[in-house]
Write a structure and sequence with these properties.
- The chain is of the alpha/beta class and 473 residues long.
- The protein has 2 domains: 207 residues, Rossmann fold (3-Layer(aba) Sandwich), CATH 3.40.50; 260 residues, 3-Layer(aba) Sandwich (Rossmann fold), CATH 3.40.50.720.
- It contains 17 helices and 14 strands.
- The protein has an 8-stranded mixed β-sheet with strand order 3-2-1-4-5-6-7-8, sandwiched between helices.
- Helix 5 packs parallel to helix 6.
- The longest helix is centred in the middle third of the chain and has 32 residues.
- It starts with 6 loop residues before the first strand and ends in an 11-residue tail after the last strand.
- It binds nicotinamide-adenine-dinucleotide (NAD) and uridine-5'-diphosphate-glucuronic acid.
- Nicotinamide-adenine-dinucleotide (NAD) binds next to helix 5.
Length: 473
């Protein structure tokens, strides 16, 4: 099997499937890679001649697509054909939190994984290695195997093995993460299949960075990695609240603790709470699994990580209202940044969504600017009244701004929610001249130079630093 893998099919052309397969295609020119998705519109976007129309924004992705697409990288909605021709199939479909039924609000909804497994069971031919790329609850491989075993028992020509190969890329740095990962994790119980996948990665990953385990350890490691990362953010965010009360500075605290190599300096940036499609869903999934196995105390421990995250978002919207004399009704507020982090157009679970909703519900008129998030996406996420003209600006609305200056014009406050580079070095003198008095800046990422902004008479609140110099005004 090791040397027989020539055709790869990846089910799911999303944030993981697209970039991952683009890097595979680039690093392994001898492989033919077909990324299939049931969403025809998404497939068309991946095939778009205009590379600015690719369905996701990731630095370096457009270059890889233009280099490999049409050569050994293809996007299609023809499952049947590409599943049937594949030697190896990656399942890279979405696994959101269930919204109804057993485990609703916590367990992962595996219906897309199950559907993919059924498609593979039906169309695959001969020997096929099935690889879990999606993040899945521990023991999911058992479900996939059961579906595949059924079809194997009916058609003796079909033979399946299942591997777990979770993806650790972070959005905004996906291509670099895929090209230079900290590690590649492969779980399985069939040595030939494991080696076939190891062999592919060896095209660009040093051997000592490839970890092989059993299936269950691999599946559980992915959930655990995300839970640990999210836990660090909730930990530092809880400390940020204490810094604001005591006069300590969160940046100094992060530096001081992060230089201890046992703690490490990464993931100690306080902010408006973690967003993204995975941290919350993966922790809730872990909580569900704990409860399923009767480990309720442990479940509660992890649940707190999500609770603190929700609290941080609420804490920030509340303090904005308090600082603006206890009401934002009819006030104009500029929102800078809507994506869940910089360098991505993804808004899933973005803290901007809940903070904006709170402010709109309190009567604020928001002007939202993000360099990469579309007007339509903000409309879908907020799902609240949009002001299209001056007379719509009553109490509680939002408008789309195409530039920073459009967003901040005549505003009472600016709220920086995403740490985009262009928000770090704003021209405070000019900004002050365009805002109403008193002019507030709420820096939920602690990225601006407070002294510089205060020099021009702006009032600044910064996460983990508070608004300590306000008495100077
Ligand atoms: P996504 O929603 O962007 O993409 C999933 C795609 O799968 C969609 O385009 C959908 O149409 C397609 N799909 C669903 N069912 C299908 C089916 N039966 N046949 C064909 N296509 C189907 O999701 P994503 O962000 O790429 O995440 C995918 C998985 O990877 C999730 O389990 C997620 O937890 C995990 N993950 C995500 C990231 C990330 O940064 N987004 C990182 C690591 C792991
Ligand atoms: C995260 C993990 O970092 C990836 O390893 C994992 O593969 C992925 O989830 C996944 O499974 O989906 P991602 O969500 O794309 O990646 O981005 P992160 O960089 O982890 O940021 C997540 C959230 O935490 C963002 O809202 C970010 O702004 C926030 N964050 C991050 C902080 O508030 N402070 C930090 O110090 C770091």
């Amino acid at each position: 099997m090791i040397n027989k893998v020539r055709n790869i099919c990846c089910i799911g052309a999303g944030y993981v499937g697209g970039p991952t397969m683009a890097v595979f295609a680039d690093k392994c020119p001898n492989l033919n890679i077909f990324v299939v998705d049931k969403n025809k519109q998404r497939v068309d976007a991946w095939n778009s001649e205009d590379l600015t129309k690719l369905p996701i924004f990731e630095r370096g992705l457009d270059k890889l697509i233009s280099k490999r697409r049409g050569k050994n990288l293809h996007f299609s909605d023809n499952f049947k054909k590409y599943i049937s021709e594949a030697d190896m199939i990656f399942i890279s479909v979405n696994t959101p939190t269930k919204t109804k039924g057993l485990g609703a609000g916590k367990a992962s909804d595996l219906k897309w994984v199950e559907a993919s497994s059924r498609e593979i069971a039906e169309y695959a031919q001969g020997e096929t290695i099935v690889v879990e790329k999606s993040t899945l609850p521990v023991k999911t491989a058992q479900t996939i195997k059961s579906i595949l075993d059924e079809s194997q028992s009916i058609n003796k020509d079909k033979k399946f093995t299942v591997l777990s190969n979770p993806e650790f890329l972070a959005e905004g740095s996906a291509i670099a993460d895929l090209e230079f990962p900290d590690r590649v994790l492969i779980g399985g119980d069939n040595l030939d299949s494991i080696n076939a996948l190891v062999n592919i990665y060896l095209n660009w990953i040093p051997k000592d960075k490839i970890i092989t385990t059993d299936l269950w350890s691999s599946e559980l490691s992915k959930l655990t990695a995300n839970a640990f990362l999210a836990q660090r953010i909730s930990s530092i965010n809880s400390i940020s609240a204490l810094c604001e009360r005591t006069g300590a500075n969160i940046k100094d605290v992060s530096l001081a603790i992060g230089t201890d190599k046992r703690i490490g300096k990464e993931f100690l940036n306080a902010g408006p709470g973690f967003g993204g499609s995975c941290f919350k869903k993966d922790i809730l999934n872990l909580v569900y699994i704990y409860d399923y196995y009767g480990l309720h105390h442990e479940a509660k421990y992890w649940e707190k990580v999500v609770e603190i995250n929700d609290w941080q978002k609420k804490r920030i919207s509340n303090l904005i209202i308090e600082k603006l004399f206890g009401t934002v009704s009819g006030k104009k507020i500029a929102i800078l940044g809507f994506s869940f982090k910089a360098n991505t157009n993804d808004t899933r679970e973005s803290p901007a969504i809940s903070i904006c909703k709170e402010l709109i519900n309190e009567g604020g008129n928001l002007f939202v600017y993000d360099p990469k998030v579309s007007h339509e996406q903000i409309r879908i996420d907020l799902n609240l009244p949009e002001a299209r003209q001056e007379q719509d600006l009553n109490e509680g609305s939002w408008s789309y701004a195409t530039s920073i200056s459009e967003a901040i014009k005549s505003s009472d406050a600016i709220v920086i929610i995403t740490e985009w580079e262009e928000f770090k070095y704003l021209n405070w003198k000019e900004i002050k001249s365009k805002m109403r008095n008193p002019s507030w800046i709420f820096d939920t990422r602690s990225i601006i130079n407070i002294c510089e902004a205060e020099k021009y008479g702006l009032k600044v609140w910064s996460v983990g630093k508070g608004s300590q110099n306000i008495s100077n005004f």
